[in-house]
Design brief:
Low-confidence stretches: 650-663
Largest sheet: 8 strands, mixed, barrel
Distance between the termini: 114 Å
Number of strands: 16
Radius of gyration: 49 Å
Shape: rod-shaped
Helix content: 55-70%
Strand order of the largest sheet: 8-9-11-12-13-14-15-16
Structural class: alpha/beta
Number of helices: 25
Bound molecules: ligand C2E, calcium ion
Length: 663
């Protein structure tokens, strides 16, 4: 049964092999026109010599009808386009070719045999020659439809063999036997060829499948390489490739205004530190979901790494109202997040830059958005800032500051000013804070916070610290014995044992007593690398110096850090003092900090006191040690000595305190 089924499959066109059928038809299309052309030529060359010796219907009408059919078939093939043929149509066309080849070959055989009746022996040879040459030509042209080739051979060879073998001339008998054997050999070759052809097609199909699988795999890989696995957002690589596409555009959209944004979460590190990394991850996922909901599909949102996200805004109305979009994001980010450990609240800060006006390549765009972000973090945390020409000017100034810091004779150009720290109860000066000044021949006076930050970024701040500390210590030697000197250290001064040893070395070499030195450090400097900074502070303590925590209230103001650090003094930042005489809450905060200092036995200094009212308010909340313009602006060293001589006592406090007790 199975054998029979296989046999049937072998001799029919199988509709379940669409790819194979398509390949067969494609081969057929190339060969069939040639086959019909050869058939036409053969037919005419056979019929023509018989005109007159056989009836006209045999030599003219039937051949003419055949020629018309062949012409028609050629036109049909010529007009066929394989791409437009559906699989079932191809099967139909193949089947019809098989049937047609059977019909044509039967008619051919009958026609040839009838014609043979009118033929002499010579003409009979012509007819036999015609039949076989036509058959072999058709076999080769129909190689890819093995069924047709076999039917054709059987239909033509068997009757002609019988006819020739029964002929009285031996030569015809020999032709009959010979052609039978050759045809058997040809059938063997045809089936072999067909097997090779089908296995080639099968291999081709397999290869196509493999390459399409490979393509899919490549696409998956590409997707994975461009996706952040935690949030499923596009990643840094994808963001930069989109930025690259944007800036290398050559089409009409080349100069379409686009906004590039960088968003950074404020307070993420704390969530990570306090609750652990899984909760931090949870927060990042929820953040990306929230951002995605606000921004929709029109704005590209990518996670660049850590708690940093990138935005690309193309839509005209969003571009026009980019600060509005930024504010919407910042507002949404302020709402609490429900995490597995509980609810947390963070903020987001955003820096934007406009393409192409403020940057034409990805590097500049990224740097400038990053600058706007940092600028916002320092000046308006939790808000969006767009990079402007003012920022461009600052960047240019900073780069010339950096250049001059590198080139200048700092030993000559750096100097020190001293600002007194006064006990408001007695009016006595307790010490001075040394403040750096830089007068450069090209840049003029540069603000210390600016050039110190530049030197920190360049990594050369310890060179400045060495010069400034040596100068300050030398000058302080001229002061009365009870005065201390406060000196500011930066992040880099605390970052390595070498820089700390360098400071210790300078202190040891000076004639100023170690226990009259106070080193001021800010919370942010310590937080940068708490363990290292804490170690450095302990080394300075061993030297005999005291440590003051500067600008308290502007950074983390974390009590746990205050407790873990070897701090002797705390300086309340001047931002609290601005409103101390007008705002009750501020007064309460300052009172709490002063109480904290008293409880922890810390010496508390209040910075930035400018007016009598501020001083009075401070007296009311328990402040005592004051630094500010009210007593004195920073002074050149000689003026500091004059100041000491002139201001022995400043007992103004009592009357002020009376005034404030009525508020
Ligand atoms: P800082 O350590 O907080 O120094 C106090 C700053 O407040 C000084 O600014 C001082 O002039 C200013 N100030 C004092 N009283 C008042 C006041 O009543 N009102 C106002 N508006 N300001 C007042 P300065 O000298 O411009 O220094 C700025 C910052 O530069 C310093 O802030 C400090 O962070 C840094 N700095 C200064 N000298 C050095 C230094 O030698 N080394 C390091 N690493 N940093 C320094
Ligand atoms: Ca200071
Ligand atoms: Ca300060």
């Amino acid at each position: 049964m199975l054998f029979f089924k296989n046999l049937v499959n072998y001799f029919t066109i199988n509709a379940l092999e669409p790819e194979l059928n398509r390949e067969r038809f494609s081969a057929l299309m190339k060969q069939v026109p040639l086959m019909y052309s050869i058939l036409t030529v053969n037919l005419i060359s056979l019929a023509y010599p018989h005109i007159g010796s056989a009836p006209d219907y045999l030599t003219i009408y039937i051949p003419a009808a055949f020629c018309l059919v062949f012409l028609y078939r050629n036109i049909v093939y010529y007009r066929t386009s394989l791409d437009n043929l559906k699989d079932d149509k191809i099967v139909k066309r193949l089947n019809s070719t098989v049937i047609l080849s059977i019909i044509i070959s039967i008619i051919f055989v009958i026609w040839a045999m009838v014609l043979a009746q009118y033929a002499s022996d010579l003409m009979l040879v012509h007819i036999v020659f015609f039949l076989y040459i036509t058959l072999y030509c058709c076999i080769f042209c129909l190689l890819h439809i093995m069924q047709s080739a076999i039917y054709l051979t059987l239909i033509i060879i068997l009757p002609s063999f019988l006819y020739l073998i029964t002929h009285e001339e031996l030569v015809f008998k020999a032709i009959g036997v010979n052609s039978l054997l050759v045809s058997a050999g040809l059938i063997f070759l045809v089936t072999n060829h067909y097997k090779n052809f089908t296995s080639l097609v099968a291999q081709k199909i397999k290869l196509t499948e493999q390459s399409s699988q490979l393509e899919k795999l490549n696409q998956n890989n590409l997707q994975l390489a461009n996706m952040d696995s935690l949030t499923s957002l596009p990643n840094r690589r994808s963001f930069f490739s989109q930025l690259g596409e944007l800036t290398s555009r050559q089409d009409s959209l080349k100069h379409q205004t686009t906004i590039v944004g960088l968003l950074d979460l404020d307070g993420f590190k704390r969530v990570n530190d306090v609750f652990g990394h899984p909760t931090g991850d949870d927060l990042l996922v929820k953040t990306s979901e929230r951002l995605h909901n606000i921004l929709g599909e029109d704005i590209v949102l990518a996670r660049l790494g850590g708690d940093e996200f990138g935005l690309i805004i193309n839509k005209a109305e969003d571009v026009k109202n980019v600060i509005g979009v930024g504010e919407k994001i910042c507002e949404a980010m302020r709402l609490p997040f429900k995490l597995r450990e509980g609810s947390v609240q963070i903020t987001a800060t955003i820096g934007f830059v406009e393409y192409p006006t403020m940057g034409e390549d990805s590097k500049t765009l990224f740097e400038r958005a990053d600058y706007a972000l940092c600028y916002s973090k320092q000046n308006s945390k939790g808000k969006p800032v767009i990079f402007s020409s003012d920022h461009e000017t600052i960047i240019r100034e900073v780069s010339s500051i950096e250049h001059q810091l590198h080139e200048a004779d700092l030993n000559k150009e750096l100097s020190i000013m001293f600002q007194p720290i006064v006990d408001m109860h007695s009016g006595k000066t307790k010490g001075f804070e040394a403040l750096a000044r830089w007068n450069n021949p090209i840049l003029g006076y540069v603000r210390p916070d600016i050039f110190i930050r530049s030197a920190e970024q360049m990594g050369t701040v310890s060179k400045l610290t060495s010069i400034l500390l040596s100068k300050a210590l030398k000058l302080a030697c001229e002061w009365p014995d009870e005065l201390y000197m406060s000196f500011n250290l930066s992040i880099h001064d605390l970052s390595s044992p070498q820089t700390v040893l360098n400071i210790i070395n300078i202190v040891e070499k000076s004639n100023f007593p170690n226990d009259r030195i106070v080193f001021e450090v800010t919370e942010t400097a310590v937080m940068h690398d708490f363990e290292k900074a804490n170690e450095a502070l302990h080394m300075l303590k061993l030297l005999g110096a005291e440590i003051a925590l500067d600008d308290f209230g502007t950074g983390y103001s974390s009590l746990s850090y205050v407790q873990r650090m070897p701090i002797d003094r705390l300086k309340i930042d001047r931002s609290f003092i601005n409103e101390i005489d007008t705002d009750k809450n501020t007064r309460n905060i300052v009172r709490t900090i002063i109480d904290l200092c008293n409880n922890l036995d810390l010496y508390c200094i209040v910075e930035g006191v400018e007016t009598e009212d501020q001083l009075a308010a401070l007296e009311q909340v328990g402040g005592r040690y004051i630094q500010g313009y009210y007593y004195s602006r920073p002074l050149v060293p000689e003026d500091a000595l004059d100041y000491l001589a002139q201001h022995i006592d400043m007992p103004k406090v009592k009357t002020l305190a009376e005034k404030w007790s009525n508020v």
